[in-house]
Amino acid sequence: MTIQSVLVVEQPTLGFEAEKKIKLVDIEADKLVSNGEFTVPEENAFGRSFRDYENENNARHRVVEELYRQQHIHQTFEFVKKMREEYGKLEKGEMSIWECCEVLNNIVDDSDPDLDEPQIMHLLQTAEAIRKDYPNEDWLHLTALIHDLGKILIHPNFGGLPQWAVVGDTYPVGCGFSETIVHHKQHFKENPDYKNPEYNTKFGVYSEGCGLNNVMMTWGHDDYMYLVAKENGTTLPSAGLFIIRYHSFYPLHKCDAYKYLMNEEDRENLKWLNIFNKYDLYSKSKVPIKVEEVKPYYESLIKKYFPAKLKW
Ligand SMILES: [Fe+2]
Ligand SMILES: [Fe+2]
Q1: Which terminus of the chain has fewer CB atoms gathered within 10 Å of its CB, N or C?
Q2: Structural domain of residue 263, as residue ranges?
Q3: What is the DSSP string of 75-135?
Q4: Is 25 within the bounds of a domain?
Q5: How many domains does the chain have?
Q6: What digits encode the pLDDT tens for the residues 65-74?
Q7: What does the entry list as the binding residues for substrate (predicted)?
């Protein structure tokens, strides 16, 4: 399918269900028992260990480093505010979830040292691996399928944003930058927020336990897809939206940084994110999926949790 055949850029329409209540997930993640053993492969698609950002022989090493240089310099509190306002209007286009999967299929994520495959394979591999181990959590299968759709921001029709404003690990802005952030040492000094006393303390503009919902994260595909899902009135549970929104927040889920900003609901949802993350990271191996075979199942989930057409 060509992009022109699926993207219809329209005038903004007001009144869609922006504030539709999000259903709370009523199952506790830590009480779930997986029905299968998910085996963590030792090598990624390039035959190296996962998330290896230091390996200079890695073909993508320099691209990744440059991406983080730009991200660390340019992602400021003001920048994020501006992007959330602009993209929150959802006036870039209208398409279904599956159409977006197909458009995204032509985009390769430069920030990812593990992945050199079309995005749709990554999405389906993640979703199918989770489906196998958690067959009854259909919302989690769909969450996996859509978690990276926000990468559409790279596409010219969606602003053609540079990679540093779309992909890569995310972290809060408006408070001090944690030392656990990848490539922390190099470039934050050039970020205007670094010297701003309003933003450079442990809590910055936030307070202890304020809840991640009140914290502004670096702008990228996570927050964008969260906005799209929420503003289009998805019925996905709170944990699904949490996964979409924070799946690249590695300082939190890998290093326990910024935990003091979380509230009780965040702590519950984080259990699900930890489950999801294992699959997001390690299903990036060359396990081929027959797209047409699994498509009807995912189409049925899309129908259950989303409107037929979404505003983007
Ligand atoms: Fe992602
Ligand atoms: Fe992903």
Answers
A1: N
A2: 50-311
A3: --HHHHHHHHHHHHT--S-EE-HHHHHHHHTT---TT-TT--S-HHHHHHHHHHHHHHH-T
A4: no
A5: 1
A6: 899 999 999 9
A7: 51, 109-111, 151, 168-169, 247-248
Distances (CA, A) of 150 to 22, 57, 309: 20, 29, 16
Q: Please tell me the distance from the alpha carbon of residue 61 to that of residue 63, in angstroms, as a whole number.
A: 6
Q: How many H-runs (helices) and E-runs (strands) does the chain carry?
A: 12, 2
What tokens does 240 get?
């699904």
DSSP 298: H
Binding residues for Fe cation: 122, 147-148, 221, 247, 280
Give this prediction's pTM.
0.81
**Could you tell me the CA-to-CA distances from 295 to 1, 148, 172, 292 in Å, in that order?**
15, 17, 36, 5
Cα(221) to ligand 1 centroid in Å equals: 7
What's the CA-to-centroid distance between 226 and ligand 1, angstroms? Answer: 12
Whole-angstrom CA distances from 301 to 19, 58, 261, 275 are 22, 38, 33, 20
> 256 burial class (0-12, 13-18, 19+ CB within 10 angstroms)?
exposed
Q: Is residue 22 part of a domain?
A: no
Q: Is residue 12 part of a domain?
A: no
Q: Which residue type is seen at 62?
A: R
**Residue 265 identity:** E
Domain assignment of residue 211, yes or no = yes
Q: Ligand 2 centre from 280 Cα, in Å?
A: 5
